[in-house]
Design brief:
Two copies of one chain form a homodimer.
Chain A: H1 5-16, H2 22-29, H3 33-45, E1 49-56, E2 65-73, H4 78-86, E3 91-97, E4 103-109, H5 112-122, E5 129-142
Antiparallel strand pairs in A: 2-4, 2-5, 3-4
Helix pairs in contact in A: 2-3
The first copy, chain A, binds a DNA duplex through helix 2 and helix 3.
Amino acid sequence: MDLDETDREILRILQADARTPFSEIARRIDMSSATVHDRVGRMEEAGVIEGYHAQIDPRSVGLGTSAFVGLRIEQGRENDALDRLREIEAVQEIHLTTGEWDVLLRLTVEDTDGLREAMFEEISRIEGFSRSQTMVILATDLDDRALPI
Amino acid sequence: MDLDETDREILRILQADARTPFSEIARRIDMSSATVHDRVGRMEEAGVIEGYHAQIDPRSVGLGTSAFVGLRIEQGRENDALDRLREIEAVQEIHLTTGEWDVLLRLTVEDTDGLREAMFEEISRIEGFSRSQTMVILATDLDDRALPI
DNA sequence: TCTGAAACCATCACCTG
DNA sequence: CAGGTGATGGTTTCAGA
C-alpha cells in the first residue's frame, strides 16, 4: 500500500496516542473526520496498522524481571523447537538472528524464581537447543520508542 | 497501586485492543461505563497504564531491517555513552544487561545500508564502548505478546 | 459504584469538485 | 474518486446521589 504524507501523519498521531479521537486527528491535519475514518480503515485493512495496545507497566502487575535468552538450535529441529517456545507464557518475543545465537527470546516473569522456572523447567526441556545464554535486564533505559515514520 | 481482578480484566482488554469503547468494557465486566472510566483514569494516574499505541507494520513505512546490538561499555563512561545512544533515531530500545554484553540495543532501519550507517557512522563514534556484536533479525516469530496479567 | 444528562464522537449514505 | 456534509445513534464524561 502506498502511503502519502497525510497517512504518515495519521500514523504518527496514533502511534503516540492510539485513543486520539478521529475528530481531533482531523482538526490537526485539517481534514474532515470522515476522511480520517476512511484512511485509518484502509490502513487497517492493508495491515499497515496491526492493532492498538495499551502499554502497561510490567511491575504494576507483578512482572518485575525480564531477560533476553540466546539459543543455538540444531539443524532440522527449527520448527518443532519454535512451536514449543511459542507455548511458553513467559516468552514475549522470539527472533531468529544472525551472529552468536540462532534464536533470541525475551522473557518477562515475576522474579528470579520465575526466571529459573522458565529456563530450567520449560526452555531447557525442549529438544533441539544446544547452548544458551541468559542476559538478565538490569534496567531499561529506552523501551519501544516510536518508529521514525 | 493495588489492582483487583476487575482492574486486571480491564487491563487485559485494553492491552488486546486499546480502542475498545469503555461502554463495551463495561458490558463485558458487567459494570457501568462511569466506573470503567474511573478505574482507567486511576490506573493512568498511577502509571499502571503508560500509554496507548498503534502497532504499525515497520515494512509498510519502509523500515525493513532490525537488529540487536550488544555492546561492552568502559567503566565510568556509562552515562555519557547512554545519553548519546538515546539520540540515535534508529535506536528503539536500550537495555542494561548481565552476561556477555553490558548494553543491548534494538535498531530499526530501512535496509542494510541503514544498518551500516547506524553502526559505523553513529554508534561506533561514541566513546566508551569497547566491543560490539550485531545480530541481524532474520525473522520475528513472535513480537510483543500481551503480558500474562 | 451508579444514574442521568450534555457534549462529544463515529459512522454512514449521499453529495461535490 | 478522494474528500466533504449532515444526520443519527452511540460514547465519554461529570456532577450528584
